[in-house]
Amino acid sequence: MWWGGRGQSFNIAPQKEEPEMGLSGPKSVQGSRMPERRSRQLGSCMSSGCLPGEQILAWAPGMRKGLEPELPGTLICTNLRVTFQPCGWQRSQETPLSSEYDFALVNVGRVEAVSGLSRIQLLRPGSLLKFIPEEILIHGRDFRLLRVGFEAGGLEPQAFQVTMAIVQARAQSRQAQQYAGITLSKAGQRSSSRKPPIPLLEILEDWETERKKQGAKGWRVSTVNERFDVATSLPRYFWVPNRTLDNEIRRAFGHFHQGRGPRLSWHHPGGSDLLRCGGFYTASDPNKEDIRTVELMLQAGHSDVVLVDTMDELPSLADVQLAHLRLRDLCLPDSSVAEDKWLSALEGTRWLDYVRSCLRKASDISVLVTSRVRSVVLQERGDRDFNGLLSSLVQLLSAPEARTLLGFQSLVQREWVAAGHPFLTRLGGTGASEEAPVFLLFLDCVWQLLQQFPAEFEFSEFFLLALQDSVRVPDTLTFLRDTPWERGKQSGQLNSYTQVYTPGYSQPSAGNSVNQKLSVWDWDLRYSNEQILQFHNPGYDPEHCPGSWLPRQQPSFMVPGPPSSVWLFSRGALTPLHQLCPWRDSPSLLAVSSRWLPRPAISSESLADQEWGLPSHWGACPLPPGLLLPGYLGPQIRLWRRCYLRGRPEVQMGLSAPTVSGLQDELSHLQELLRKWTPRISPEDHSKKRDPNTILSQSC
Amino acid sequence: MRAVPRPPLPWGWAEPQPPVLVAAATAGARVAASAPARRCFPGRRYAGERGSRRWRRHQGAQALLRVVRAPRGEQLLCEASTVLKYVQEDSCQRGIYGKLVCTDFKIAFLGDDESALDNDETQFKNKVIGENDITLHCVDQIYGVFDEKKKTLFGQLKKYPEKLIIHCKDLRVFHFCLRYTKEEEVKRIVSGIIHHTQAPKLLKRLFLFSYAAAARNSTATDPKNHTVMFETLQDWCWELERTKGNMKYKAVRVNEGYRVSERLPEYFVVPTPLPEEDVPRFQGHGIPMWCWSCHNGCALLKMSALPKEQDDAVLQVQKSFLDGVYKTIHRPPYEIVKTEDLSSSFLSLQDIQTAHSKFKQLFLIDNSTEFWDTDIKWFSLLESSSWLDIIRRCLKKAIEITECLEAQNMNVLLLEENASDLCCLISSLVQVMMDPHCRTRVGFQSLVQKEWIMGGHCFLDRCNHLRQSDKEEVPVFLLFLDCVWQLVHQHPPAFEFTETYLTVLSDSLYIPIFSTFFFNSPHQKDTNMGRESQDTQGKPLNLLTVWDWSVQFEPKAQTLLKNPLYVEKPKLDKGQRKGMRFKHQRQLSLPLTQSKSSPKRGFFREETDHLIKNLLGKRISKLINSSDELQDNFREFYDSWHSKPTDYHGLLLPHIEGPEIKVWAQRYLRWIPEAQILGGGRVATMSKLLEMMEEVQSLQEKIDERHHGQVALQAEASSLLRASARLSSLFPFALLQRHSSKPVLPTSGWKALGDEEDLARREDESVDVGDL
């Protein structure tokens, strides 16, 4: 097998002839005993696409259907992916991992075998195929559909084998999760001191740098979870108020669900803090000191605290999953919805409704954060799903930095990856029932923002698409583990594993092992430079509104709150609360359910008027620069067509011509022309040479 | 998610405490609402003002109103002072006091606050209609509020309302509170408004005529307007020549002076072998009339059906006549003619009317509560109006016809009862798709002129300008504009005009100073103008056409009607090209081929050449019933076009799948403050675009200077876009800028939360869910 990369190339013995190939059962052995002429013809074709460590389990010649005209080729099942290779097609060497014809095994959703007109079998893991299939339908979780019809004429056993191989490989990939080991790619060819494109927040310094960048003075990095003994789902390091001691934190966190106590998410330059935490662990019986600590941590030095009930008005995990499944059914090319019923079917999925409620809530919270110096605490029972979603959205809305390419990647790394969003479970990687694509919901929300504010984001729709796709490509650990702890554990093995395939690879020292880690943010693993260039939004215009970059301190926007007020934000309104913690007065469980009850206020109207809303002088002056308020009306929430309708050929062809980028091409062409004609570089010539490497590897 | 509808909003039109005037001068300046008086044709001198006696009588009142200039011939009918107009800006309760006046041209609200008069920000202002002006023809429905109950107002009133709600045809909604107005004035203004907007009118009483009469003496300079009006034989000959249709078709003058039919224009085009004597036999019915010729020689024809007869003998005559006609056009050089009967197998006007009235209700919103209630079910409401489906069907029909003309080399004959509704719609759509000339501004205007104005579309009836019959009111032209909008939206670089152009064009339907949309036929227009001229000074009336955009917009504002992305078709001739250079709005610096093959189709797709065909094969699922051969042809044509890169100067087809037909957001959402996205929307991209265009232009200049030593041309990017710091998605129609971000949330927090039990239950629920 040949694998060529930039600068270097190296050979790996063809996997087909290795005896180890039998690992996955007799089928692959049979597979290699294919008819002689076919074998020769297909040999080069198939192997060209293989990655190091990838094994071909079975293959069969077939005809891709559904898209016209039909395309002859070969359906191949490896231990990494199912791929359909059209005849004469060469895999691009630049981007060996992603192609239109690939379905990573994680991505394989429903598999159906069809024979004749009437026999259709849904193939579940472990089920046995009852007939020789004439056609196989592979539904991708990423809204694609692969239909391959098998040729008749002596090759039926192969069709049978490849179908069974797909079913088995998919089942195995779930259980063993071995694919993570196949992190291969170009990493090996790189120099050993590859710096992660963004801080991965696995070391103390990253947290410290980020804290300083945000200007969070009252906060420090706590190392209390360095050995993951407070909570495995928490990152090693997190931010806590300066004045709290580590042992206090350890005790206080014990009173929260799964040990996820209040931590700083983001410090607004105006002074507000956005915190997130899990639900109060109601069975515990904290002493007074602990309660005091918890309260201090929630207040974070502010007199005004708003507890946000995250799950209120948001869909449950099951809702999200159901909506996503429905949306997929609707968007797959074989959906049976009539054109004139499309809109109500879309509404029926409720996906857009959920997108809308997320945006609405995030918009409300960002107003809470921006309008007054206060501490806003997002509280979700598990603190691993919607807290991350809301906190990231709030930051996107209120911090222009988060809307840059680097800023967005660090945001996702911090609020999702490091914060312990259970990616593997939520994306269905474990086969557990808790599948719910919360992260994809988030990406959809971001896309909506991108639609609404095309000049405010440095990244483009294509970047979001690439991120969306990466979720299903098993080449880095970023989305393949549930907790930072598991990720850390695995990456050690990963290092030694990659060495096997890396001749001339220098022995990594213990110190720089962190640097060796690959993350999803190493885009050049999967995408060509040309594609990476497309991650940039040509319409991005940070100077679009002068002063959109928030100066560090803007006290003028911030009005101090009334002394010690505690509020609950729920159902779009603020309610006064007696106390922050549920335990103080009556530690019994019975009291818990009533803890949110509002205290009867003497004059609710006046209180509310005084409290809620923005400083009165906002009426006359424009919004605080940099704050985006998204629209979330029915007509404004759109379907992300390029993402969800990608299975439909008619939608794939770019509807919106990239007019801005076309102009940009024209611009650079003209500049080029002018430069050629001008002996010296004219001062007006501000052509920007864009190189993906410099773009993506600038450190924050 | 618990689908709890949001509680009513704080500002839900509760009565503000009087007097809630806009206090701060700064705030007042922003309420540009109070600047209406000067909107009456500023910048024009009105010699005719003094001409009217009644005008003089009202001069006292006018002075009070500070109406310095009004449209010529405008007469004040009634007025009321201390009227409170609700301002939708902001989420707080607010109103402006002012005068509500009703003239024979419009209903206008003149704010008391004068400060706004000095406010000369560069906005996209209409010079004729201010933001607080409603022309009488633009009024759709009038409601009165009696003790919190909303009722439709019509006819004689016994009781006068406290509040007046006016729904406009351009989807604005006005709320006027009359509580602080004198009873006498209330009576006068309410009955005046009702009478003048809803009572049937005579054609001669249209404001159009008083305006034209008053303007008679002013020498209107004919603006540089290249729109072909199709009022002369020459115009038709040019059009024949342009489309190379003159081989098989001839322009005839049979109907000169409307001798044959008052329905038809004076000049039109028929197949060359058709004897001219045939035309008058059924007053032009049954005669195939030429619309347009395709590059391959096939033509689009239309024909109005022969009158329905019971008598067998007459039927026989009709039949033989038609046979004769068909024989003529079936013989060479015409080859095959396909007849498309639009009145039997296609949409009915009734469908269009019903759909539109349902559809517009989605946007005519009285208060926010109502809005949020409907918002939850947005998509199903939208679907149930079936307006989008009607658009889809029109586009589909147009594609089918395009397929016949383009792919099958067949002539197509559109057949309709009067050939003046759906015929106009379909034939213009086909031309927009097939003829790149129709996608320029001048070309589009000429097209409207040819197919709609000369085609005898009954604008007067269809818009119900005279309030004579609600049944006849069918927004066919609006439907056409919406179809074109879909095309503009899907292929922006192919059009010289923008969606804003279409929006203001749709608004112009209701401005009665333009003659364009106020007649049922050219005959009606000519006769009414002619008689007038005999009565008085023997000089024909000087009617404005809507195509003279300078009447409505300053040159600066007009730049927004022009699509900066549009690139004119490059001329092949090199010598000519250099000369032409500066006439072009913009030229491609890159070779055209490059822009064509740029990898815009699909993202991250390998686009090796031999594969492209395979990859791009496509189908329209569901839409097509594959059993039908015709449908197969259609599908193949549609698929193959969409699988090729788009040539913006060639054939242009829309996507018509379910998700691709969209709501014309600019037109329908522009007055809804909740729909505003501050600093967002397409305009954000536009301003960036313009910036880049300027850069491209300046570089082009440099290159030209260097090479040809030619004079630089002016950069014309709109300064409108750059002036304002942060534009909103409603630009350029954002009259009510949402200045604060006061969140749309209820203020009294905990009433909304419900009672204790409810809360406790919810708490339990969330615990349960978490435990799972």
UniProtKB/TrEMBL annotation, chain A:
InterPro entries referenced in this protein's UniProt entry, alphabetically: MTMR12-like_C (IPR022587), Myotubularin (IPR030564), Myotubularin-like_Pase_dom (IPR010569), Prot-tyrosine_phosphatase-like (IPR029021)
Highest classification ranks of the organism: Eukaryota, Metazoa, Chordata, Craniata, Vertebrata
GO biological process, one term: phosphatidylinositol dephosphorylation
Region feature Disordered, mapped onto this chain: 1-38, 681-700
Protein family (similarity comment): Belongs to the protein-tyrosine phosphatase family. Non-receptor class myotubularin subfamily.
Protein's UniProt name: Myotubularin related protein 11
One Pfam family per UniProt: 3-PAP
SUPFAM superfamilies: (Phosphotyrosine protein) phosphatases II, PH domain-like
A GO cellular component annotation in the UniProt record: membrane
Entry-linked PROSITE patterns: PPASE_MYOTUBULARIN
Domain Myotubularin phosphatase residues, every copy: 201-644
Bias (Basic and acidic residues) ranges: 682-692
UniProtKB/TrEMBL annotation, chain B:
Tagged with keyword Cytoplasm: yes
Compartmental location: Cytoplasm, Myofibril, Sarcomere; Sarcoplasmic reticulum
Keyword Cytoplasm included in the entry's annotation: yes
First-listed, main subcellular location of the protein, grouped into a coarse class: cytoplasm
One record GO biological process: phosphatidylinositol dephosphorylation
Domain Myotubularin phosphatase per the UniProt entry, residue ranges: 230-668
GO cellular component, one term: sarcomere
Keywords: Cytoplasm, Sarcoplasmic reticulum
InterPro entries, sorted: MTMR12-like_C, MTMR12_PTP, Myotubularin, Myotubularin-like_Pase_dom, PH-like_dom_sf, Prot-tyrosine_phosphatase-like
Function: Acts as an adapter for the myotubularin-related phosphatases. Regulates phosphatase MTM1 protein stability and possibly its intracellular location. By stabilizing MTM1 protein levels, required for skeletal muscle maintenance but not for myogenesis.
Annotated family: Belongs to the protein-tyrosine phosphatase family. Non-receptor class myotubularin subfamily.
Name this polypeptide is given: Myotubularin-related protein 12
Source organism: Equus asinus
